[in-house]
Amino acid sequence: MKIEESRILCQPKVVWIIISEWMDTLAIFMNAKVYMLFNKNNLISICCIKNFGKVKELGVVITTEKFRKRGYMAKLLKNVIKKYGRLYLICMPHLEHYYEKFGFKKTKSRPWPLQIRAGPYNFFAKIFGWDQIIYMKRK
Ligand SMILES: CC(C)(COP(=O)(O)OP(=O)(O)OC[C@H]1O[C@@H](n2cnc3c(N)ncnc32)[C@H](O)[C@@H]1OP(=O)(O)O)[C@@H](O)C(=O)NCCC(=O)NCCS
Predict the structure, then answer these.
(1) Using a 6 Å cutoff on CB, does residue 96 contact ligand 1?
(2) Mean pLDDT of 86-93
(3) Can you give the pLDDT at residue 78?
(4) pLDDT exceeding 70 applies to what percent of the chain?
(5) How far apart are CA 68 and CA 71, in angstroms?
(6) CA dihedral 110, 61, 132, 106 (to 10 degrees)
(7) Of 70, 92, 100, 106, best ligand 1 pocket probe by most atoms within 8 Å of the beta carbon
(8) All domains of the chain, ordered by start, with CATH?
(9) pTM of the complete model
């Protein structure tokens, strides 16, 4: 198993995974740093770090479907987050428990790069009674 660092636009397969999983395409437009976990040269899990200056955001946290629930993402996240100090993320509430295992805590702080994306969604979520996106912070 190996972990490699790259930029999203250098990795067409990563671009495809992000689009096909309906994940945050801002990471593609920002050409964010991506970390990839491979097993025998198969790309299994990815995550990226969006750099907004003082605010750094963990995003595009994806394990390819048939390899989920085998600890691959845990391996990747443990390796990646130790390279960074404070990290933020936004996610749906059912993932709060998962990210807590890596030291993230739900926070009331709303850095603007996250707020401009989660805010409009949460506005409609409130009206229609959907689950609202939560903000989490590590360190
Ligand atoms: C969320 C996601 C990234 C997790 O990836 P993963 O590689 O399955 O993650 P892990 O294997 O580390 O952990 C997943 C669960 O499997 C459990 N697990 C880990 N290893 C296991 C094993 N060997 N056997 C059984 N279960 C195991 C973990 O405890 C965890 O359970 P929990 O959710 O109750 O905490 C993956 O489900 C995914 O890609 N989802 C779609 C995209 C998405 O929603 N991403 C989040 C965006 S914010």
Answers:
(1) no
(2) 97
(3) 97
(4) 100
(5) 7
(6) -50
(7) 70
(8) 2-138 (3.40.630.30)
(9) 0.94
By residue count, the chain amounts to 139
Q: Which residues fall within 8 angstroms of residue 115, CB to CB, at 6 or more apart? A: none
Cα–Cα distances in Å, from 3 out to 86, 109, 116, 125? 21, 31, 31, 36
pLDDT tens per residue, range 50-89: 999 999 999 999 999 999 999 999 999 999 999 998 999 9
Residue 56 vs residues 5, 94, 95, 137: alpha-carbon distances, Å: 16, 22, 19, 10
Q: Which atom of ligand 1 is nearest to the CA of 45?
A: 7
Res. 137 pLDDT band, cuts 50 70 90: very high
**DSSP classification of residue 70:** S
Alpha carbon distance 84, 69 (integer Å):
25
Banded pLDDT at 92 (limits 50, 70, 90): very high
Tokens found for residue 111:
């850095």
Q: How far apart are CA 139 and CA 133, in angstroms?
A: 20
Strands (E), the chain: 2-7, 33-39, 42-52, 55-63, 87-91, 104-106, 134-138
To which residue do tokens 């996250």 refer? 114
